[in-house]
Design brief:
Blueprint: H1 8-16, H2 21-28, H3 32-53, H4 57-74, H5 85-107, H6 113-116, H7 124-144, H8 150-159, H9 162-177, H10 196-205, H11 208-213, H12 241-247
Helix pairs in contact: 1-3, 2-3, 4-7, 5-7, 7-8, 7-9, 7-10, 9-10
Length: 248
């Protein structure tokens, strides 16, 4: 039986069980009828696929929750934002991908042949770590820029483990000092002043001079392993994370 002859609810389930969004897109383009079913059920299909296809789904979902709470808290009398929840999810994911692409270009990790062996290019596991910290930083930015939610920003930092804090510290240093804010049409803009509060909060919370005075030891990784001093997200430097847990 051709797929188009199946009941719409069965076709919707087929969409929901696809492997990733590239398959969803290809299926939706097969015919006008399938495209109509996708449009009519896109929120349900999106979240069913996202849970499986996106390794940072829980972090992305937490950012969405913070954005929605910030919007309703700061603008209780305003109409709902123009983007739906799944459209906001996709917008945030595009920003995360654009940031990761730029970070890869800045670090040029593919040049670390000795440290990375036969597979020097940036790997999926490394992208996932970077995007996790990116979502954390954006969540912190959202909370810290809404006065009534600032206590939640501090609780968010306090709940981070040492490795998560190291990731926040590293991505904030990159976003504030190394990027040229060239993210194409993604909509990401680190020069927006709303990010400054997050940069400042992470800098204060992760201040190494204060931690060293309290007996914590800075982890030193050589330039042949850590381009521009960045190393927390790379596979070949994960063994240093044990030192962070021991000395933070």
């Amino acid at each position: 039986m051709p797929i188009i002859d199946l009941p719409p609810e069965i076709i919707c389930q087929i969409f929901q069980f696809t492997a990733d969004f590239s398959v969803v897109n290809a299926l939706a383009r097969t015919s006008r009828a399938l495209h109509s079913i996708w449009l009519a059920n896109s929120p349900a299909i999106f979240f069913a696929v996202a849970v499986r296809a996106l390794p940072n789904f829980s972090d992305a979902e937490r950012l969405i929750a913070a954005q929605e709470e910030a919007y309703t808290t700061a603008r209780p009398d305003f109409p709902a934002p123009s983007l739906s929840r799944h459209e906001r999810f996709l917008f945030n994911a595009r920003c995360a991908s654009a940031a990761c692409k730029h970070w890869d270009e800045i670090c040029q990790v593919h040049n670390l042949d000795r440290a990375r062996g036969d597979n020097p290019a940036l790997r999926p596991s490394e992208r996932a770590r970077f995007k996790r910290s990116f979502y954390h930083l954006w969540t912190l930015s959202t909370l810290s820029n809404t006065p009534s939610l600032r206590p939640q920003a501090l609780k968010f930092l306090a709940a981070c483990d040492p490795v998560e804090l190291a990731g926040l510290d590293e991505i904030a240093a990159w976003a504030d000092g190394y990027n040229e804010n060239e993210f194409g049409d993604s909509g990401l803009n680190f020069k927006d002043p709303t990010w400054n509060a997050a940069f400042h909060m992470v800098g204060q919370y992760c201040a190494w001079d204060k931690k060293e005075n309290s007996g914590h030891r800075r982890i030193s990784v050589g330039g042949d392993e850590a381009p521009l001093g960045f190393w927390v997200f790379f596979d070949h430097t994960q063994h240093y994370l044990g030192q962070i847990r021991a000395h933070w």
